[in-house]
Amino acid sequence: MSQTQSDTDEELDVLVIGAGFAGIYQLDRLRSLGYSVKVYEAGSRIGGIWYWNCYPGARVDSDGPMYQFSREDLWKDWEYSERFPDWREVRRYFDYLDEKLDLSKDIRFDARVTSAEFDEARRQWVVRAGDGSTVRATFLVPCTGFGSKPYVPPIPGLDAFRGECHHTGLWPQSGVDLTGKRVGVIGTGASGVQVVQEAARDAAELTVFQRTPNLAFRMGQQTLTPEQQKEIKEGQAAGYAIRTTTFGGFDYDFLPVSALDVTPEERESTYERLWGMGGFTFWLGTFQDVLFDTSANDTAYEFWRKKVWERIDDPAVAEQLAPVVPIHPLGVKRPSLEQNYYEAYNQDNVTLVDLRESPIEEVTATGVRTAAGEVELDVLVLATGFDSVTGGLTAMDIRGTGGITMREKWADGVSAYLGVATAGFPNLLFLYGPQSPSGFCNGPTCAEIQGELVVRMIDDLLRSGRTRVEAEVDAENAWREHVAELVVPSLFDRADSWYMGANIPGKVRQMLNYPGGLPTYLTKWEESAAKDYAGFTIT
Ligand code: N01
């Protein structure tokens, strides 16, 4: 990977922050249109979250064909070996992209952006990075993803632990050998579930500290045969073509029927079929009202619960992992895909500690003490998630026209017109950001589809000789209300999820993702674009 470390104080058309899917899409497309573009990346290689999240078991939760770019010259020569590739293979895919698109020459690695301020006179962002470099750019495009700021809960004594302690999102690049160790995992979100499956196999003893059970679905993992690879290639273009018509940017969508309008037998056979397919079809390919109607949701939950109970030997443990009375509706927290997660709890070396019954009191030098006693540990894994969606943006000291930071502006809640810009921060367009489809949309899909809207906007502006664009306050307030209204008929508010900003104590509770689905989002964008970007002030 080449890198030009000497080019400080340069002037660019666009500075992109982050070299994940969204960032490299911006780099490649804007560069191809003739603009001067650089990416600043905090990590030491491309891949975004796939650089930082190299914990044991880290694996994609989307089918491989959907977890790549849709350009034919890219997909025709690329194959993942598994239906749901692991982090090593995704890294190889990024290396492949790097080779094909010659990306790294325009990426400054180990350059974490720390601050940015808008120079109104020159209509430029002045951006500083932790490596001491400064760059000026007409447009600033943060592509920091929704999970780039790890959340470490303020558990008393955490600093006193003398064993190894790592957050999944800051996992040592050299790896951590869990073999024969006493391992504790706090957190059972997507990251926790994945670590648990590996640690259950390798650790001498594994203790899982669960606050809320993960309603995890069957992954349906497969190592792909040459015949399956051929079949995938044959369907790939058609799959990409329908992504803009589906809620989550996948190649499938909700069934256009209510779970309550079919007979119990039809419902059961439909759930069985979706379950058998594996992946997120049981979530985003299910009856259209499961995420909106409590009675419909109850039918899906009960189907799921029975599937889980069949796999767990001890009914008391089954009740902790899949309670008869749901703690929250199914699918309103991001579900995980699992392979042998539930069987792991049948193993003698695996213990589940239910933190609702026995909360953590403190971390000691030698382990974790809950109300039920102390568990001695060699390795403590914090699978405690992220200051999601906004954290990557507010972690930087970004100052707009009034001198206030984005963190200050959003202290009482986020407003972001079309999920892409916020008033007071001209020429700053964020990808996969708050109130955009982000967390509800497949990552590479949104990197391309939302990414292309931003590319087009920058190109439209610069070609027409206009160099300043700013979201209007009325427009962003209306968008915030629109997002809030979309949540009302849904069940999303019934869980303390990162979707709702509710995973971080003190964070304003509001929907941080656009819950109207990709097609509606795109329609809203096109309505604005058709009126010369109504809702933005452009000069
Ligand atoms: O984080 P999370 P994640 N004491 O916020 C618990 C994506 N992702 O890193 O539910 C004890 O989901 C918390 O408990 P509770 C994916 O979109 C994708 O797992 O708040 N426990 C929860 O169990 C995902 O949704 C992939 O009660 C505490 C856990 O920590 C998103 O990233 C893989 C606690 C955090 O779960 C985030 O997933 C990994 C405390 N004080 C991630 N504080 C793939 O696609 C928090 N918890 C493969």
UniProtKB/TrEMBL annotation:
Q: Which residues form the FAD/NAD(P)-binding domain?
A: 13-233
Tell me which UniProt keywords the record has, alphabetically: FAD, Flavoprotein, Monooxygenase, NADP, Oxidoreductase
Q: Which cofactor does it need?
A: FAD
Keyword Ribosomal protein found: no
Quote one Gene Ontology molecular function term: oxidoreductase activity, acting on paired donors, with incorporation or reduction of molecular oxygen, NAD(P)H as one donor, and incorporation of one atom of oxygen
What family does the Swiss-Prot or TrEMBL record give for this protein? Belongs to the FAD-binding monooxygenase family.
Please give the name of this protein: NAD(P)/FAD-dependent oxidoreductase
Q: What is the lineage of its organism?
A: Bacteria, Bacillati, Actinomycetota, Actinomycetes, Pseudonocardiales
